[in-house]
Hints:
This is CBU-0592-like domain-containing protein. By secondary structure, the protein is an all-alpha fold. The chain contains three helices and no strands. Helix 2 (32-52) runs antiparallel to helix 3 (56-82). The longest helix is centred in the C-terminal third of the chain and has 27 residues, at 56-82.
Amino acid sequence: MTFDWPTLVGLFGSALFIGAFAYANVSARFDKLWFNLVNLIGAVLLLISLSVHFNLAAFVLEAAWALIALAGLIAALRARLRRPAP
Length: 86
């Protein structure tokens, strides 16, 4: 295995996923906006990596992950905009 730029980008995306998962499991105040944003960025980084080192199964997983994170991000933004100002 070579540690070229696509591999490093993919590893960084994986680190974001792991960090978001850890955050979701230990956070006392869960923020859906940040959780979904970090997951979306991680998925996009992995898709960039997969554009060079293609794997169909991983591509399908990351594309679905990105779409789910995007939908969650939009829902979190809408909820935040509807919330009354303090």
